[in-house]
Amino acid sequence: MVFISKNDKKAWQDYIDNFEHFTLNLKKDDLKKEVKIKDKNSIKKNNIANSYKLFKKGKIKPDGVIDLHGYSLKMGKQNLESYILKSYENNLRNILVITGKGLNNQGVLKKEVPEWLEEKKIKNYLISFEKAPNNNGGSGALLLRIRNKYKF
User: Fold this and answer.
1) What gap in Å lies between CA 63 and CA 48, rounded to an integer?
2) SS3 content of the chain, % helix, strand, coil (to 5)
3) CA distance 135 to 28
4) How many alpha carbons fall within 13 Å on the CB side of residue 74?
5) Statement: residue 148 has pLDDT above 90
6) How much is the pLDDT for 30?
7) How many alpha carbons lie under 13 Å from residue 30 in its C-beta half-sphere?
8) Inter-residue contact 104 to 110 (CB < 8 Å)
9) The pTM is what?
């Protein structure tokens, strides 16, 4: 059995009670250093931002690509939904959806796809989506971050 000091017990209780805003003061060689623990949301946002930066630099490629050029709205939506579901099931995390820009940058799919991605049926499988970097299609494509099916 391991005994825990009162200081350690108090630090642990403070940590549990105030996890989101917890700071821990450590003493090392009589110097105080403050360590801030980030909350889960900021870590998640940083990971998503890092993925986007890596795509922008061309260091990683999408796990999957779906091209919706030439599809009607109905068929495009059905194909996108099934592709996102299959990607989730196969644990593909980064998907590139090519919508095209349309005539005078006013494409119907370009406008509709982001609205579809906000619908509850699809949104449950997504972490985020945003305009793809220029080297992956720019304003004529979207980069989707799919949830990890093994994390609950």
Assistant:
1) 15
2) 50, 20, 30
3) 47
4) 0
5) no
6) 43
7) 0
8) no
9) 0.64
Contact between 80 and 142 (Cβ < 8 Å): no
pLDDT tens by residue, 63-101: 899 999 888 999 999 999 999 999 999 999 889 999 988
The single-letter DSSP state of residue 60 is S
Looking at the chain, list the stretches that DSSP marks H as alpha helix, in order from N- to C-terminal side. Answer: 6-17, 40-57, 73-89, 108-117, 120-123
Q: In angstroms, rounded to a whole number, what is the distance separating the alpha carbons of residues 84 and 40?
A: 25
Q: Are 96 and 103 in contact (CB under 8 A)?
A: no
Tokens of 96: 């590139």
Query: What's the rounded Cα separation, in Å, for the pair 36 and 84?
Result: 36
The torsion angles phi and psi of 38, rounded to 5 degrees, stand at: -80, 150
Which amino acid belongs to residue 137?
G
Structure tokens at 101: 């820009």
How does pLDDT run across 25-63, given as a tens digit for each residue? 555 554 444 445 555 454 445 565 676 677 777 777 888
